[in-house]
Design goal:
2 helices, two-stranded antiparallel ribbon, single chain, 122 residues, alpha+beta
Amino acid sequence: MAASKKAWRRRVGRVTVYQRGGRFWIYYRDCTPVRRPVGTSREEALAVAAKINAQLADGGPTLLAFQPIAVTAMIAKWLDHHEHVRRSAVNTVISNEPNKRLVRDGPADHLRSLPGSRPVAD
């Protein structure tokens, strides 16, 4: 029976970098465990791990930290992404006038009535 190959793993302060498949992942604890893929290069993964370790030491938000977002901001980002990046014809976007967007009877319509939905600050 052949001996199993030990997976590559490196510790950078409070951040662990490991390889799984063809990608490198990082793991650290910031109130909750965080596991994220960071790329296919070992050097890139170690650089990201060093940045996150420095941010953990400073006590600030980390590079891959969860950032809460208002529902209305999420809807605006989603619509902008579909309009400008994907250039798809989203049925919820009806625009008869330039520079005006009207959302009607779409999947995002019910989200506006959720508690915590507040207008997007410009």
